[in-house]
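Hello,

Following up on my earlier ticket. Below are the two sequence lines again, exactly as submitted.
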Amino acid sequence: MASSKPGLDTQLRGAGPKEDGLEKSMAFSAVRRALLGAQTEDITEDAIGKYRVLERLGAGGMGAVFAAWDPELERRVALKVLTGGREASEEQTLIMREAKAAAQLSHPNVVTVFEVGVAQGRVFLAMEYIRGETLRAWAQTEPSASDRVAVLLAAGRGLAAAHEQGLVHRDFKPDNVLVDDKRQAKVVDFGLAHSTTEALEQTSADAPAEETRGPTLTQTGPRSGTPDYMAPEQLRGRSADARTDQFAFAVTAWELLCGTRPFEDNVSVEAPRGRPVAGTPRGIMPALTKALSEDPAARFASMQALLDALDPAPRAARRNRWLLGGAAALSVGAVAWGSTAAAPMTADVITPCTDLDAQLDGVWDTPSRTAYAGAFTQADPDAGDTLWAEAEPTLDAYATAWVGASTEACLATRVRGEQSDETFTLRTRCLHRRLRAFTALTSRFADLDAAAASSVPSVAQRLPSLDACADPERLAALVPPPPDEAADTVEQLREELASLNASEQLGQYKRSADATPEVVNAAMAVDYRPLHAEAKQWEGLIFRRMGEFEKAQASLEQAELHAIASGHDHLLAEVLGLQALVVGNNRSQPKEGLAIADRAQAVIERVGGDADLSALLAARRGVLHRDAGDLQQAKAAFEDAVSQIEAINPQSVQLGDTLSNLATVTMQLGDLETAVDLQERALKQFETKHGENHPAVGSVVANRATVLRKLGRLDEASESFERAGKIFTASLGETHPNVIALRLNRANLELEREDYELATTLLADVPEQLQKALGEEHPWVGMAFSSRGRCWAERGDHDSARGDYARALAVLEKAAPKSVELGIAYCQHAASLSVLGEQAAARAGFARAYAMFETVLGDELEGHPELESCRALQAEVASAQ
Amino acid sequence: MSSNDVALIEAWRGGDVRAADTLLRRYFDELWRFFRNKVDDAAEEMIQRTMTALLKTPAQFRGECSFRTYLFRIAKSELYRFYRERQRNTDRVDFGSVSVADMGASPSSVAARREHERALLIALRRIPLESQILLEWHYWEDLTMTEIAQALEIPVGTAKSRIRRARERLEQALHDTIDSGDQLSSTLQNLDGWAKQLREAVAGG
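Thanks for your patience. The regenerated structure is below:
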């Protein structure tokens, strides 16, 4: 590249202002919203173009809608003023082109666009003024099934008419259908969501809560708003066509008829879930199912073809014809339906495997589901309904799948005779364990609190896999059942363990811990060794949760012995995996922990592999490598874990955990940019999977606080620490080591803000408390002493500082002999010594600090912030001499 | 124009959000360009801070320079303040010698452009902040020497010689960037010992 002066001039000018459209306009809206708050939507001139603004009707991410007067034609219009792209941006040009195309369309089921224009730099659309409400709002009025179908068909005809003109809607959803006071449906906002990928970006950055005033007339929504109605191919970034509209229409129809959307997300589409309201004509749901096919080619050829399949009027006519034709014609009709229906409709044959759903009586039937719904509302009057609406389809799918799997197991032996009685017994036992977990969870609904309710949707997704019960290797690894005389007791205790486990998963740690000793004692009294292993595993897990790590280790070691003795191999692998973490991480013996992890891996291999366990183990190795001071290896292990988990299930909660840990290591390696990205991914994962107050969220918030702090966003960091502190205190109590450690972290933040008084107050007896909770030689203890030393030093009391630093060194040299933290302690200790006039000792201390940084950081040494701070500190005390 | 801008600020102070809106629309582009290549993800926040500062200190502008120049002066002060906040541990940051790259803002977020432009943008971030600002105002915003001097509150002669120096630095940085061929290591000059993270995360159950 040339770097002569004229060349540089030209390049400099050339590299300058570039229109970075979307990013800039999002920044613009963000600043505008931050500066002007909710008032932004009120900003509009009295007149827009030729229209006189009468009243504001509503607002959303895409813009505001006003009632306005057209003085030329003397009529009332709805005026949508789009925000976002300013001036004549490409984005605006695109929107205008689409909107103008839509304005060509005239159909009774499409809102007519009169004019598209630009005024005051903003695109506006003047539209037919509709007196009515959105389809979403209309559905709340509990219309009859036949009214629902009629309105859907009308909206569908609007879509079909647009498709015939070559127009695609791209963002069909209940909010984009208006139902007027004559119950006429009209589709609005054709083509305004002009690009899928952009639309999704827009959603994340620009999705304020929808807000409307009075009866909705013309609804505004975020640009292409939620992905809930988008077809899978559209979500994957491919361009939208008529078949993506067909999919969106079917999701909308499904939601209107069943009350829930068919899929949890539309990325990978399975069998749609939900039951239609009573009175929905048969045949509607199979047709919608076909329109909901993941492969666009498997859907109907056109919107019109879907409407033909849905429309009960022509079908009634057909049925009449068949009736006239007699029985033969009827069977033709049935076959025709069979081809589109999800399940073939065969006549009932009496078989021995039909009543397996009876096992769900009182657990998952209509009365119990109604009761659960009530419990959610009671637990959280604000969010309970939403949470239940989120959890119910998952649970229902699980229950249905359970009945399906049980029926299949039964049929294979009893009817088809292709499976031995032994296998049948194993499958049944395996399925029985699954049902136990399901029942344990649902029975907890009776006394939910808000925090527990909020985690139900994610816990429901983590119910044990039913597929495993059809896997011969897994079945072969099942331990033999208890002797008959103990069977009932064992079953009862297993149920109680499952119930404790459900409580723990819902975040009710203390309650679960309190009930543990009684159950474990009873289990140990039964003469059935597999149960001993299970009980001790549980005990170890809950001890760990409550921060009693030494006890946790002891329990897990016993569990290991019982598992080996009884051939409980899967459990053994799980026990070793957890033991590795407790020993290596919680008890700070990472080398030993890694050795246990190797044993766990070997057991996993012996049982023929287990993707879930193996991914979990990779993540734990990451933690242990980090604790051993090997950040590079830790990073590699976490990356390995992330890719394993993504391969199993990209929605998994574990993904958030692992991303969060990867972020932390990345941060410690000094790459803050990447760390923030990873943190953001982790948080997103968590906030969708857990409720606000779930303890697991606390960890992520705490980690996030750390990165924010490193980035100098101190106020946000302080806020995050406070939030994390509240969450942890609520679930763990004041004296839990993590709660104390949080105080330490906050104190360190205040140190950075140079509020030494507050830092001192926060730290008070933190080192001693940590010592009590974690033992003499835990790294946290050393770091707490180190921080308190820093407080003294900053306040000029170098004598006290020296004392705390010395204590810090004593702990860290044993607990974390290869660590950045030890390097920092050496450095600060040396600085205090220097101020106190002990120059020789100070020099030796600084030398030790630099040697430590070099050992730990390796390639990352030069420019590492801790090294730089230490150099600065040394220079500072030297110049003070 | 400038008296009009002052009137808008006054109106905004009186609660007229439409005035604020107009003002923001009028100057958003300038502020966006100014902060984008300097603070990574904090550009929005910085624009907001600058606008708020404008609201809080209306009396300071007495028409001795163009309103735009005045706005740039405020933007610059807010930027310096931002860096000082990030640099709590350093008593005083000398913006004549510290570059954006030194301050922990990494170049990774620079919008991908043609390779040599990228190199140029990266080089801009490696030279001292004040030099970067001088060059950008001169080349991108077409501020005159007088305006630059007013915005930086330095004599015109000084501004001229600093621009010259800034160009030399940029060329040097450009050479270095091309020679080393890769991105810079982020050097956030921070901070005291940091507790290891809570890592409840890899849960047992």
